[in-house]
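agent> fetching stored inputs for the zinc ion docking request
agent> found them:
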Amino acid sequence: MKPQRPPHRRIHPLALALSGCLALSANHSLAADHGAAHAEAPADKPAAHAPAPVQETHAEPAAPQSSSGQDTISRLKAVIERHGAKGGSVSLRVGGHVIAAANSHSAAPSADEPHAASGHKTRPAKVSPKASRDYIRARAAVLSGHAAPEAHAAAGGDSHEVHWEHQGENGPQNWASLKPEFSTCATGQRQSPVHILETETMPGKAEILRFDYRPSGGSVVNNGHTVQVDLAGDNTLYVRGSAYKLIQFHFHHPAEERVNYKGFSMVAHLVHKNAEGQLAVVAVLIDPGAENALIDQVWTRMPLDVQDRVGLPAGLIDMNQILPADQRYYQFIGSLTTPPCTEGVLWLVMKQPMTVSRDQLKLFTHLYPMNARPVQALNGRLVREAL
Ligand SMILES: [Zn+2]
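agent> prediction call returned; pasting tokens
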């Protein structure tokens, strides 16, 4: 997933001038993610707090380049990105490509690379938003991604070779071929997400979900696939005669689920686990609208890089703020929506969507333009519709 630089691209004179005096380096960037297994225990990694990039567009358009054949650039745009209020690093981007970057930090942000042996020894020297995202995802796959913390700690090596993604070569259609452990992603018959059609559901009275959510702390992490909050607190869902503890929640854009042919801007997945290790995921669909207070708290503390983990003060997270008032739901058995696509997950999709503001949505989509798995066949599964 490394962006290809077109061949024969000419370099703007300004870039040459700057690249002559600036040391080439990569920089840090924004991002977020989705745990390989929804219920993974948090991987305690110290946060490398990096300032948010500030972008300044200084000149455009530059003079067209005269060239022949396919080597034609009609416009050039020179952009200087300053990362950090104190001028931590500066990069020059011309025509969408980073030509030069300087980092005044004495310690390179890649000092936390314990997996250099995996082949990801260096950071890409491009810091355009897309390159940043690509880099973040690749790094996420190395650092955690599909690998469970235990396997991760074992640092075998082969667990770092497969980088599943939501798009491209390593996207959902190829997950099963990336690793034997991911085979269920293709062979499973009870996969998630699904498209719920009320014409095919089994409507009727169903038990009331009992949410016992209390203000909690925890931490928010960008795992390279999503923004995830690992909770430390007392949050329990009682359903089907079992007590499921809320472990973490995370987001997808767009929503993975569809209902009656309608898609949604986002979805929050609230991942619960009971004493037997069984998972129950509550899906809260999200449309644009009023700002959400809980998401505001999380976004305010948005991690800045993969495995950057930001602590949340005790009591800050009130999960009731993301539950709709109408708690009717759809219910079916499905799977994790990310590799290894493990089945046997109880899904509870809330019927009433919540809302986020356009700004809240924009912030997430900047990090994750697309982190949703396509809908999977129901294969005759029963979908209960609680009335
Ligand atoms: Zn999810």
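agent> quick read of the result: The longest strand covers residues 242-252.
agent> awaiting further instructions
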